[in-house]
Amino acid sequence: MVIERELETIDVSFNVGPQHPATHGVFRMVLTVDGELVVDLEPVIGYLHRGAEKLSENCDYRQAIGFQDRTEYLSQFNAEQCYCIAVEKLMGLEVPERAEYIRVILTELNRIASHLMFMGAFSADLGIFGTLFMYAFRERERMQELFEEISGDRMMYSYFRVGGLAWDVPEDFLERTRWVLKETRQGIADIDGLLTQNEILLARSRGIGAMSAEQAIDWGFSGPMLRASGVRHDLRRAEPYSIYDRLEFDIPVGDNGDVYDRYIVRLEEMRQSARIVEQCLDQMPKDGPIVAPGLKRVLRPPAGELYMRTENPRGEYGCYLVSKGADKPYRLKIRSPSFCHLSALRDMIVGHYMADAVIILGSVDIVLCEVDR
Amino acid sequence: MSAAEERREPGAKGAPIVPPPPGSIADKFKEVLPDVEFEASQGVLDVVLIVLRQDIPRVMRAAKDDPRLAFDYLRCLSGIDQMEQGLEVAYNLYSFKHAHNVTIKTVLPADDPQVPTVTTVWNGALWHEREAHEMFGIVFQGHPDLRPLLLEEELGYYPLLKSHPLAEIEESQEDFLREEAPVAAASVAGAPPAPVDEKAAKIALAQKKAEVMKKAREEARAKGLSPEDEKAFVQEALKALEEGK
Amino acid sequence: MIADNPWIDAVVRMLLVVMLVIVAALILIWLERKVAGRIQMRLGPMVTGPYGLLQSVADAIKLMTKEDLRPASADRWVFELAPFVAFVPSMLVLVSLPFTADLFVRNLDLGLFYIVSVSGLSIVGLLMAGWGSANKYALLGAVRAAAQLISYEIPLVLAILGVAMVAGTLNLVEIVAGQGRVPYIAWQPLGFAIFIIATLAELYRNPFDIPVAESEIVGGPFIEYSGIRWSMFFFAEYINVFALSVLGSLVFLGGWNWPLGNEVGWPLQVVLIFAKTSAMLLMFMWLRVSLPRLRIDQLMSFCWQVLLPFAFLGIIINGFVLVYEWPDVLLGLFSGVAALIAGWAVYRGSRRAVPSQPWSVVPARGIN
Fold it and tell me: Mean pLDDT, to the nearest integer, of C321-326?
């Protein structure tokens, strides 16, 4: 006679983070697991909150550009561009051609650099000991050297200004950028060869953390997360800003919205960004002004408010800017894509294994500074 | 003057109200919800509709569900402190189906900052509303979980309100330290200090140094010294303090 | 025989082997870092000593001078004894591991059986570490490690059993002696493949290192250890790697016997066996830095659903060929065919998920 009894188990609840190699920053998840299955999850953020929005209210419009860098420390040019375009639209400024092209070149290179960082961190989460990380960083290092030559800083560039750029690029900018682009294409091919058809990666990422298109839209996803779920939406095309309407590029769109699709979408986006940079290098005017003329030292945009959004490597980065005509912003709200993605983390991870939790978090590609501001 | 214009600050700081062009999203809203009071204007990028706060659930639900509007995407939810005019909540919406945008705003009185939640309409509003609550004190009625998100619990104030100071925060920290450390006035005179714990003594010393430096800086500026001279002046004052002990 | 008194003889041999293995482990640590570095396009240790050769010594000194921490809520004796219980079985394996026909501590008639059974004892040490650390991560890691090791012991044993069937003995020296003409890898390719995979899992190396995964559970059972205690776990791992590589080259690759035969002097035999061991070690290191890791359930299902049936198949093939006294070539033939079928099945099974092009690259004009 066999008596079947239910095995009594307790759900173990423990912390992942805030100091943890896998959480990509100071981020804490309180996981409740039943054996290996995640039953509940609570993300805890705010460890990196520095009050950037409040501080921006006390800086004038030019100083606030520095905060944008520090909010998005992996795609700085993108954040600076969003903020600068917001103020320019408020003031009705027109940025000269050459400055626009240089801005787009730097922004797209920054997009490649940010996605390379994602590749490195993602592979580290997967368990590749460090090989892909070094390959990705080899390419990133080239770009950071280029950026350092241009702006003087390896990470917090503060190079864009309202109305254009701070100063002109060095003389060998075109050749250097072409060289960087050539090497980067090879690097992307390396990463593709190592990971895309890797059976272990497929086994660990297909079907993991899938979000359907309706769910993604409902939770406020944007960028590669949204496109991986099958929604064809890219702000550079849907609401073009700067000179993106003159450029030809494609948009990779995934199928299931799982981790693998997000990886693939970002990989393809790198290639498309390289394409954009090439076109810009060809179309760029050889010389010309780099700042809109007639700007005073202290900017006083007229009163008004707007919500400017641009396509960041992580998603839709928005600046809700309220101006009362003073020299400081009245309210600068930063809408960061990682913030919205993290709010859906519970729905993505519950029901998967603990090892998958790390991979799903890696696939969201969060930047804690923009989550916490 | 319309109610919207009254809400703007009088004088040069006010932005002129530009009505939205015909056929814009404002007309669609009026068509879908004819009995709701809208005040439409054309913002820099999007059309801005100002709605009364009790209409927010109806308007948002219609915005999402009605096929003519189809706003399935909440882009951003911001709180804005307009001081005397109250608090504002701005919702930025986007529709994938029709590819149109709108910004919907409500105004809340400063002494009663409550507004119904929109988390029932879009899940993405969950964290945005939590952040608006902890930064401004706006209470979203019906929100399942209004705990602070970025700030610590039981902070006691709402940082992003204009009434909360930015530059004077160091002084309020000094007040806090002063309460904790019982500083004996006698130790200034050079008498051997009573056996107080080391931490309090260190805090007291740091405070004294800060005061001396502040006074020295003010003096130097009053004299009109150059920055290097000012630094030297402050260093001398500090040295005098050290020797005076 | 080094001395007439068997006790002194045994002690001297043990000391020699222990010194050899400790030096080997130190060199292995350095080699792993260099190989990993080179594959990752960097140099590895270069500063301490020429080409960083003294890096292991520097690490050893650092670890010995570190503060010995113990969590306050740790179960004291379990926590403190765990490194020893994990370390000793690795050394015990060396007792019956011969390096040439004369260089061993004691050549047991049951050598193979002894090695397999003793190497499984280290799991007790890991479990003690996980339990005694009073840390949920450690407990999780230890339990995962236990499950993994127990599961992968079986295909490992079956692979080695196949060799024992072919050789007709469990005595390691005689197994090597029987490989004068052809190494057993030719007779047992399936067994060799299973041995490699099971060894990787036994040693908790990539792609099977989820119990000690640093990026997930921050070191698993070893999370609360520092200083000498941690270095004992670390050392135990490398000694295990070394011992199992030597075992693999003895049992499958022909040991010191193939291809030069038994009559060559012992120095050349030692060089030969170390060359084969190094080949296996380099392959393990290469796999470590280039593959992602498997999840625990994928790992377990791979063991029970793939490795085990094919290991049994190998045994059955051996049984048929040996009992009916068919020529030895058939052993290699059948085993090779089975290995190819296994490889093809695994390949097809894993490629089922590969998309040809799951994503559409949409020309951007005309969106929205």
Answer: 83
Tokens standing for residue A263 = 């990886």
Q: What is the DSSP string of A227-268?
A: HHTT----HHHHS--TTGGG---EEEE-SS-SHHHHHHHHHH
Q: Is A247 exposed, middle or buried (0-12, 13-18, 19+ CB in 10 A)?
A: buried
Closest CB to B75 among A218, A303, A309:
A309
- What pLDDT is stored for residue B2 in this prediction? 39
Rounded to the nearest 10°, the torsion over CA A151, A154, A155, A161 is 0
CATH 1.10.645.10 fits A53-337, yes or no: yes
- Are C184 and C252 in contact by the 8 Å Cβ rule? The answer is yes
A125 lies within 8 A of chain C by CB: yes
Q: Which residue of chain A comes nearest to C294, CA vs CA?
A: A200
Place of tokens 């061991």: C277
Closest residue, chain B, to A340 (C-alpha): B124
Q: Across the A/B interface, how many CB contacts are shorter than 8 Å?
A: 105
Domains of chain B and CATH, by start = 3-141 (3.30.460.80), 169-244 (no CATH)
The per-residue b/e assignment along A219-233, b for 16 or more CB within 10 angstroms, e otherwise, is bbbbbbbbbbbbbbb
Of A307, A322, A325, the CB nearest to B76: A307
Please say whether the beta carbons of A24 and C221 come within 8 A: no
CA distance C129 to C142: 7
Query: Which of A24, A108, A126, A199 should we substitute to test contact with C (largest number of C Cβ atoms within 10 Å)?
Result: A199
* Chains linked to B by 3 or more Cβ pairs within 8 Å: A
Separation of alpha carbons A258 and A41, rounded Å = 19
Strands B47-51 and B101-108: parallel
- Please report, for residues A321, A338, B81, B138, C295, the alpha-carbon distance to residue B86 in angstroms, rounded to integers and kept in the order given: 18, 30, 7, 11, 54
Closest to A25 in 3D by CA, of A45, A8, A50, A1: A45
CA distance B146 to B130: 5
Residue A206: what residue type? R
Is A128–C289 a contact, with Cβ atoms under 8 angstroms apart? yes
Domain boundaries, chain A: 53-337
Residue among B84, B88, B92 at smallest CA distance from B106: B88
- C-alpha distances (whole Å) from B14 to each of A305, B110, C97, C159 are 11, 20, 89, 84
Chain A residue numbers with beta carbons less than 8 Å from the beta carbon of C291 are 127-128, 198, 200
Distance, CA of A135 to CA of B114 (rounded, Å): 52
| C87 vs B231: CA distance, rounded Å | 62
Q: Do C350 and A14 touch (CB under 8 A)?
A: no
pLDDT in tens, A169-226: 888 889 999 999 999 999 899 888 888 888 888 888 888 888 888 888 999 899 899 9
Residues of chain A contacting B46 with CB distance shorter than 8 Å: 306-307
Instruction: Give me the pLDDT at residue A317, please.
Output: 92
- Phi then psi for A130, rounded to 5 degrees? 170, 0
> E strands of B67-184, at which residues?
73-81, 87-94, 101-108, 114-116, 139-141
- pLDDT tens digits in sequence order for chain B, 245 residues long: 333 433 443 333 455 677 777 777 788 888 888 888 888 888 888 888 888 888 888 888 888 888 888 888 999 899 988 878 888 899 999 988 888 888 999 998 888 888 999 988 888 889 999 999 988 888 988 888 888 888 877 777 788 888 777 765 544 555 555 555 554 444 444 444 454 566 667 667 777 777 777 787 778 777 777 777 777 777 787 777 777 75
Residue with tokens 């000269």: A96
Interface membership of A200 toward C (CB under 8 Å)? yes
Chain B residues closer than 8 Å to A320 by CB: 76, 78, 90, 92
Among A262, A263, A371, smallest CA distance to A317 is for: A371
